[in-house]
Every structure is written in C-alpha cells, then in structure tokens.
Amino acid sequence: MSGRQGDHREEEGRDRRSRRSTWEDEVQDHGDQSSVSRSLVLCYHAVSPSWEHRLCIPPDLLLRQVRALSRFWTVHATFDDAFRNAATVFPALERLGVTIQIFVCTRYARAGAPLSIPELVGDDPVQLATMSWDELREHANRGVRIGSHAVSHPHLTRLSDAELQGQLRDSKGEIEAELGRRCRELAYPYGEQDERVRRSDDVIDLHSHILPGLDDGAVDLADALEIARAAAADGITAIAATPHVREDYPTTADAMESGVRYLRAALEREGIGIELLPGGEVSLEQLDRLSHDELRRFGLAGNSNFLLIETPYWDFPPPLGEVVGRVRSFGMNPVIAHPERNPAIQADLGKVAALVDAGALIQVTAASLDGRLGSRTRASARKLVDAGLVHLVGSDAHTAGIRDAGLSGACKVIGNEPLARWLTESVPAAIVRNEPLPPRPTPTRRPGLLARLLGG
User: Fold this and answer.
1) Which range has the worst mean pLDDT, 47-56, 122-131, 348-357, 398-407?
2) Strands 46-47 vs 39-44: parallel, antiparallel or unpaired
3) What is the pLDDT of residue 34?
C-alpha cells in the first residue's frame, strides 16, 4: 500500500527523488520489505469524500492507511499539486504526528486557480482548485513543508534546456520569495525525469576538506557530518572531497578513496541528501613526486581529466605557468584553486590571465567573494570574476569555523544570476559528467579587460 492513488498517470510518484530532502532514510519502491528503513513517504493528490476520481482518495481511507503504517514506520505524507481539498486532513495528520509536505505548481498558486493540464480537461474545476499563496503561507507557518512541482506541471523531459531551467528556477524562486524560506525539495511532475532533469538544478561544490582526519579540515566524523548538513542546507547537492596533498598533509589516493567510502556510508546512514565526490587539492611540489596514475586518482569529482592545484599562499612561483602546460601535457586540465588569496597575484591580477591563456581553469573561494577573507581578497576575487577569468566557485570548507560550507552568499554577491549558475552549476556539472564546458553567459555590458583588472 503506497498511497500513490489517483496519479495523473500510472507511473507518477514512483520516483519522488527529492534532491535537497533532509528526511532520513526515505523509502521508495524497494520491494523487499526486509530492507525497509525507518521512514516511509506516502504520495497523495486530492482528498474528498465525494469526488470519485483517479486523483482522489477519501479522507477516511487516507487516515486508515496512515494509522496502519504508522505502527511500523515514521510516516511522511506528501501532497502533489497543492489541491485545496487536501488540507481537510491536515489537522488529523498533525494530531497523528505525521510530517506533511505540499508540492506546488507556482503558476496556479498565484490565484488559487484550478490545475489546468491536458490530462484533466473536463474535470470538476472546484475539486481541482489549488491553494493560494496566502493559504500556503498559513500552512508553512504551522510547520508544513512546501516544495516545488515546477511552474506549470510540465513534462520536464520534453523541455528544452532553457525551458527546463526556467520551470525549476522560477518555481523555486517564487516559493522562496512568497514564503520567506528556502525551497529544498522538488517532486517531478508525472514522475518523469532523466539524467538531464536530475542534474539541471544541481549546485555542486568542487572544493572541500570534508574527509575526517586527513588534513586541516574535518577533525572527526561529527565535523564532517556538520559540514555536509550545512552544505545541504545551503542548497548544495554534490560536494567534492579534496583533501590537501602536500608535504604537511601527504594524503595518498588510497587514503582519500577510503575516506570517501567511509563518509558516503555515514551520509547515507544519517539521511543527509548530498552526493560525495572524490578528488584532491594537490600542491605544486607533489606534481613532481606523484606518478601520473596517482594524480589521475585525485581527479576532481572523480574525473581524471581535471586536477585541482593549490595556489601557494605567499610567493607566486615563476614555474606556475609552466606547471599548467606540464599538467596538460599528460592529459589533465589544471584547475587553479584560490589564486585571489595570493598577495603576489593581488598585486598583479594579470598573472591569472596568463594562466587562463595557458589553458587553466580558475576557481575562487566563496568566502573570498563575500568578504569573509578580508577586503583585499574580496576585491581581487570580484575583479577576476568581472574580468571573465573565473570558471568555478568552491567553498574550500574546512570546519564550521573555517570557511563554512555553502555557495549561496557568493552567488548573491556576484549579482548576475546566469553567471552565478554557470560558476556553481553548469561548469561543475560538466566536469562531473566529463562533458565540454558550456559557454560563459554573455554579459550585458562590461568594461575592457585592462580596466577591469586595474579596477577601472
């Protein structure tokens, strides 16, 4: 008994993957009941004692289902489409201690209009009426969670890339603007999704020191889980573990890979909905000491074609430009981490342009952009972004007190949503998938390169 009655089509609700969910151990259609874990998510739509429709379930039947299942699991009840009549069972569910979540199509919430999709043409508009923003706000204030069901309940897999981004981005943005709280869950309309849809709204952090006990980052598992929770709460869906690989922290590829396996198991056990990717932050001296095979095992996000290289914190070594060419010569693309924090580069940002011309990608630190690392570092980071010399933003998260996890603050500082998404979603996703990097968004107006580098 899954509670998936009255779907728009038979398959809807079978994949309710919620990429930012914080519910622990959600259960989908596992089949083998011996493997079912603590929580069970039930999917409903309309609720009415009199409307006989494939979308609708009588309230007394719904409550009997929940009471029966609550004997064995912690039950979460979700309601797709935000039908107004669903709210009739909310008080009873709350008395049972059941967590409630509504997935709303934002176009209809603007006026509480009936859901209007081809599959429901000719059905009773009164029963199809959806909750207005005022009603949703009232439910949210009582603790009901509100997630996205896109803007207009489209078939996401049939949309162009631009249409897909608009449906997901606009619905999330409107929910957050109307309700004043983060929207971290998405239910796919019709249950339809593919790799392109799943990755379309991913925020990916390709720099963190989340693996416990390997470097100056997470000290222990509790530290690592705290970083992961903070990242997930900020909207990050995937994070790369990039421990230091240098003289004071000589992390081996074996140790990194073992740490990733260990932490992945802990994240799954704790129900933290974030994907952990492998990697390493390799210092310049280690490039000459490690074999090519070892370096490829440190490939960024598990992609052996990209290598994250640490910029020294003080001097700017003349060979850095040569290193870019050498790394490219053995088949890897260098990603230069946090050059904006190097004093020599701060004094001459043209050095970064030379690295880019040599074939490097540039990653700046989120805390540099939002000012947490000082005004000079902030100015350098912003000038590099304005100059079109930055390809990625990473958190470089260490612990709760050192470069916190999260990219949203930096995205706000950038002030250009297409560019922020390119830096935190599109380019990182291309690296994860080993696809060609997407073109940089075209700016509406930008000063010349020299003026931008000199602060003009």
Assistant:
1) 398-407
2) unpaired
3) 36
Q: Quote the CA–CA distance of 443 and 446 in Å, as a whole number.
A: 7
Q: Where are the alpha helices (DSSP H) in 298-348?
A: 320-329, 343-347
Q: What is the pLDDT of residue 18?
A: 40
Q: What is the structure's pLDDT at 153?
A: 97
Nearest to 332 by CA among 365, 366, 298, 381: 298
Six token digits for residue 55:
């979308």
Q: Which residues 6+ apart lie within 8 Å of 117 measured at CB?
A: 8, 152, 153
**Range ranked top by mean pLDDT from 31-40, 83-92, 326-335, 339-348:** 83-92
- Comparing CA positions, the residue from 286, 287, 288, 266 lying closest to residue 276 is 266
CA-based nearest residue to 379, from 393, 391, 369: 369
Centroid of chain to Cα 242 = 18
Q: Tokens 């050192």 sit at which residue?
A: 402
Query: Both tokens of residue 255?
Result: 């140790």
Q: Provide φ and ψ at 130, rounded to 5°.
A: -105, 165
Mean per-residue pLDDT for 333-354? 93
Distance CA 62, CA 188 (A): 22
Compute the distance between CA of residue 52 and CA of residue 36 in angstroms, rounded to an integer.
Answer: 32
* Residue range 17-51, pLDDT digits in tens: 343 333 333 333 333 333 334 688 999 999 999 99
Q: Tokens 């904006």 label which residue?
A: 340
CA atoms of 108 and 129, how far apart (whole Å)? 9
Domains of the chain and CATH, by start: 33-199 (3.20.20.370), 204-454 (3.20.20.140)
Amino acid at 143: G
Query: 221: which residues sit within 8 A by CB, 6+ positions away?
Result: 212, 263, 266
Which residues make beta-bridge pairs with 244?
Answer: 281
